[in-house]
Amino acid sequence: xxxxxxxxxxxxxxxxxxxxxxxxxxxxxxxxxxxxxxxxxxxxxxxxxxxxxxxxxxxxxxxxxxxxxxxxxxxxxxxxxxxxxxxxxxxxxxxxxxxxxxxxxxxxxxxxxxxxxxxxxxxxxxxxxxxxxxxxxxxxxxxxxxxxxxxxxxxxxxxxxxxxxxxxxxxxxxxxxxxxxxxxxxxxxxxxxxxxxxxxxxxxxxxxxxxxxxxxxxxxxxxxxxxxxxxxxxxxxxxxxxxxxxxxxxxxxxxxxxxxxxxxxxxxxxxxxxxxxxxxxxxxxxxxxxxxxxxxxxxxxxxxxxxxxxxxxxxxxxxxxxxxxxxxxxxxxxxxxxxxxxxxxxxxxxxxxxxxxxxxxxxxxxxxxxxxxxxxxxxxxxxxxxxxxxxxxxxxxxxx
Amino acid sequence: xxxxxxxxxxxxxxxxxxxxxxxxxxxxxxxxxxxxxxxxxxxxxxxxxxxxxxxxxxxxxxxxxxxxxxxxxxxxxx
Lengths: 400, 78
Hints:
The complex is a heterodimer of chains A (400) and B (78). With 400 residues, chain A is an alpha/beta fold. Chain A has helices spanning 31-39, 60-64, 68-84, 105-118, 127-131, 135-144, 159-172, 190-198, 232-237, 266-278, 297-311, 322-325, 332-346, and strands spanning 2-6, 9-12, 16-25, 28-29, 94-99, 150-153, 178-185, 223-231, 244-253, 288-290, 318-319, 348-349, 372-373, 379-385, 389-396. In chain A, strands 3, 4, 5, 6, 7, 8, 9, 10, 11, 14 and 15 form an eleven-stranded mixed beta sheet that branches. In chain A, strands 1-2 form a two-stranded antiparallel ribbon. In chain A, a hairpin with a 2-residue loop joins strand 1 (2-6) and strand 2. In chain A, helix 3 (68-84) packs parallel to helix 6, helix 7 (159-172) packs across helix 13 (332-346) and helix 10 (266-278) packs across helix 11 (297-311). In chain B, helix 1 (3-17) crosses helix 3. The termini of chain B are close together. Chain A binds chain B through residues 59-61, 64, 118, 121-122, 124-126, and chain B through 17-19, 35, 39-40, 42-43, 46, 49-50.
């Protein structure tokens, strides 16, 4: 990961290790159940996180004072922190960058009903701290006691990827030794689902089948994931388990349309190229692409065109875990980053559930039918969001 | 202090503050004994207003520090 370039050449940052991961998803809570879920069939029905008990992480009063998206944020972050072992960072050099698409929608929606039915005097004094999108990051930092930068990124469905990228850069730059990067979403309320339905973004069949010729929209989901990103030397000094390293990240804007991708995926292609440049990699060095692959007609086509432009066809094996996980919006990029880390760790690429019928306009090597064994190599992970936000990460096995 | 009224008062405090019922006694201090901050108390007052169909002005809350004081304020309005 580069800090910039000078006339003498690129300025390399510190190396960024992934030393802990945590996850709350509709196909499993915790890394082991999540991975099993990715290798299995898509869950049937609504893609909610079943069996999530906030009192595993919060006292009963505290649990009532935080929105579900913050509960997910804290659960994922604390699983990641536990997974990372004794980090013991200098608290002033430990930070949190956490994403969400909308923040505490359930709290806002519930209180708007109270306003209609009982009037303004009954609005909860906790509504603001429950609904604000930064509540997740703030609560994660408070509980860890980390005093470094604590910020929230809200770039819709690209937010999770942007957060992991920004978190990694804080470590690469030397500002922080450890940063919790992640994203969370819990927006499956009546209002949220109706809004997505009416913009015709959701699958009318109720099936997520990324890149398949029959795809007709995404499946809305909820969930969160977090990664402990740590200076590689710091991690090695304490003997930490190192899953992988973040070697590149990039962010671009389509500057085109509030919901539709730029024609041909031009903004996405530029973002992929910049991420590879940040990682100082040629396209041939990439061994796998974890696609955004939402299962909408427009996104998957634009992304496939962008991948073909950068990598040629068929290019490296591509998977979209959204066939199983659905689309957890601001949490998706972080969930997929964890999936990439596990793909490297387990030397398996999870399949694209729901994919059966190739789309002639998408000549990619889509992994489907079952997991594919591979020799871990650098992985590109893509996310694209309403608003024309593009985000890419490059995550690689640690070789030296 | 009638038992039924205090029971209702106590139920509100238990629900809002998530404290064990036996800690809600007249001498209990909201801050020190029941771990309630100022926003907790705003929510508790709302719950009491709703439960007893009363109105409590913000100015009336000045100096209220214990369960007994709050109960007296409520019961005087019934």
